[in-house]
Write a structure and sequence with these properties.
With 107 residues, this protein is mainly α. The chain is rod-shaped.
């Protein structure tokens, strides 16, 4: 004969099974929000994608600018003013009547 009546054993099993199901549901709910593929991670990745897309746009603009500059320096389409400006910048050359303004680095 057992210490507990049959209805008490059944209610204990029912409570224990409910607790197990609550823990299982809690586990999945936790991982839906905080897990590696959860909503928090998704929000972080979305923010990173926006940042990288902006950086890509800036790099494409810089690339277009540099390609345009290169096109003007090709022998079939040579822009003498641009060539002279680049030579002055590279070699540190200046004319006597040029006004030189020195700026601090980084500006």
């Amino acid at each position: 004969m057992s210490l507990y009546p049959i209805s008490l054993r059944k209610s204990f099993r029912l409570i224990a099974s409910n607790v197990v199901w609550i823990f299982i549901a809690g586990y999945f709910i936790f991982h839906i929000f905080v897990g590696a593929r959860g909503t928090v991670s998704w929000a972080k990745l979305s923010k990173e994608v926006e940042t990288l897309e902006e950086e890509l746009r800036e790099l494409k603009e810089e690339n277009d600018f540099l390609e345009n500059k290169i096109n003007f320096m090709r022998s079939d389409n040579l822009d003498l003013d641009l060539l002279e400006e680049e030579a002055q910048n590279s070699l540190g050359f200046s004319y006597d009547n040029d006004i030189i303004v020195l700026l601090p680095r980084g500006e």
